[in-house]
Amino acid sequence: MAKAASKPAVKKETKASSPKKKSNTTPEVHILKACETALKKLNELDLDHQLQSEINWCLGSYHADGNPIGLYQMAQRSLELFRAEQSKKTKGITAKLVSDIEKALNGK
User: Fold this and answer.
1) DSSP codes, the chain
2) How far is CA 44 from the centre of its chain?
3) pLDDT score of 6
């Protein structure tokens, strides 16, 4: 007796088995976003105009050549300023802002 033709198994995609979409989570993207956020916050609070212009220049430089070294330096300077302002209880400097810049500097 001949075997009956079986239907091919239909595999259902589940959330666990579906491939995850890669997001832009490279360290360069994190430091870029951290510097943009720092620049925005410095501008909102009207702090350190020299640092603002240097961050702005480094952002333009990064977009031109793709080298993030200046962004890391500006993020470090911003972090120091924000920590000092946070200790003074300046409104608008949140713990999340400081931790986001720290994470970007650590490459996470």
Assistant:
1) -PPPPPPPPPPPP-TTTSPPPPPS--HHHHHHHHHHHHHHHHHHHT--HHHHHHHHHHHHHHHHH---HHHHHHHHHHHHHHHHHHHTT-TT--HHHHHHHHHHHTT-
2) 19
3) 63
The Cβ of residue 106 has, within 10 Å, a number of other Cβ atoms equal to 9
Q: At what angle do helices 95-105 and 69-87 cross, to 10 degrees?
A: 150
Please give the structure tokens belonging to residue 39: 């620049």
Query: What is the per-residue pLDDT for 93?
Result: 95
pLDDT of residue 25: 78
What one-letter code names the amino acid at 39? L
Query: What does pLDDT average to in each consecutive run of 10 residues of the chain (108 residues)?
Result: 61 53 75 98 97 98 96 98 95 95 90
CA triple 97-79-94, angle to 5 deg: 25
| Residue 104 to residue 9: CA distance in whole angstroms | 46
